[in-house]
Amino acid sequence: MKDAEKILVRIKTLDKLIQKENTGTPAKLALKLNISERCIYHYLAFMKNHFEAPIKWCEEKESYLYSKKGALLVSFVSEKR
């Protein structure tokens, strides 16, 4: 798998876990995605800054979650003609 593909797969996986409010702590999330905890913070910052994802940490649930219902869409959308 190429690097760009790995990044997109991780972002899509991270998005699904955030939607389910099932990320766990940053350390546990890093294990789930097989990356470092530091990378988790980079991915979250990227999603917030480039996709304007409203990601928040919930201490009670020990999970990241979206403060608004929604999902990231990383796919091709064709124009209607």
Note the main attributes of this structure.
2 strands; mainly alpha; 81 residues; Arc Repressor Mutant, subunit A
Q: What do you see in this structure?
A:
This protein is mainly alpha-helical. The protein has one domain: Arc Repressor Mutant, subunit A (Orthogonal Bundle), CATH 1.10.10. The chain has helices at 3-19, 26-33, 37-51; strands at 55-58, 63-66. A hairpin with a 4-residue loop joins β1 and β2. The longest helix is centred in the N-terminal third of the chain and has 17 residues, at 3-19. The radius of gyration is 13 Å and the shape is globular. The mean pLDDT is 93.
* Mean pLDDT metric: 93
User: Which spans of ≥5 residues are poorly predicted at pLDDT below 50?
Assistant: none
Number of helices: 3
Broad CATH class: Mainly Alpha
Content-based structural category: mainly alpha
Shape: globular
N-to-C SSE string, H for helix and E for strand: HHHEE
Strand content: 5-15%
- SS elements, strand count: 2
Helical content band: 40-55%
CATH topology annotation: Arc Repressor Mutant, subunit A
Number of domains: 1
**Oligomeric state as shown:** single chain
Radius of gyration based on Cα positions:
13 Å
Largest sheet: 2 strands, antiparallel
Strand order of the largest sheet: 1-2
Query: What gap, in angstroms, lies between the N and C termini?
Result: 35 Å
CATH superfamily: Winged helix-like DNA-binding domain superfamily/Winged helix DNA-binding domain
CATH hierarchy: architecture: Orthogonal Bundle
